[in-house]
Design brief:
By secondary structure, the protein is α+β, with helices and mostly antiparallel strands. The chain has a single domain, classed as Sufe protein. Chain: A (Alpha-Beta Complex). The chain is 49% helix and 18% strand. Strands 1-2-3 form a three-stranded antiparallel β-sheet. It is globular, with a radius of gyration of 16 Å. 31% of the residues are buried. The structure holds FE2/S2 (inorganic) cluster. The site of FE2/S2 (inorganic) cluster has 9 residues, from helix 2 and helix 5.
């Protein structure tokens, strides 16, 4: 049912724990099962230099949290924001369909930690998106 890679990340999860003075913290709960996950990040020059997680959840949630920390470490914030639950499942060489919802938790927790980082830096994500839209309209001559 689970791939060897998934079982490996479940049995030997990477980057478990917390970071002293994290730059961003994301906490999310899975409405389907009630499990919870927390991801903490340390950021330097827009690059995620350290990342840790704590998960109170099923084996798939632990494996997906472990994998997403590996995928995000060393990436820029912008690159990390593009990591999807599908990327996590692919990196684990697949998840049973009934467990796909567990990978939502990992992607949501990472994105939430990045949002917290932006908030702490005083950067609003909405205005950034609006600025991009305005620039797009301007380029299109609207
Ligand atoms: Fe809760 Fe997997 S069953 S996250």
């Amino acid at each position: 049912m689970y791939t060897d890679r998934c079982m490996d990340h479940f049995r030997n999860p990477r980057n478990v724990g917390t970071i002293k003075n994290p730059d961003g913290v994301g906490r999310v709960g899975n409405p389907v099962c009630g499990d919870m996950m927390e991801i903490q990040i340390k950021v330097k020059d827009e690059v995620i230099t350290d990342i840790k997680f704590r998960t109170f959840g099923c084996g798939a949630a632990i494996a997906t949290s472990s994998m997403i920390t590996e995928l995000a470490k060393g990436k820029t914030i912008e690159e990390a924001l593009k990591i999807t639950r599908g990327d996590v499942a692919d990196a684990l060489e697949g998840l049973p369909p009934i467990k796909m919802h567990c990978s939502n938790l990992a992607a949501d927790a990472l994105h939430s930690a990045i949002q917290d980082y932006y908030k702490k830096k005083g950067i609003k994500i909405e205005p950034l998106r609006k600025k991009e839209a305005d620039e797009h309209e301007h380029a299109a001559g609207i």
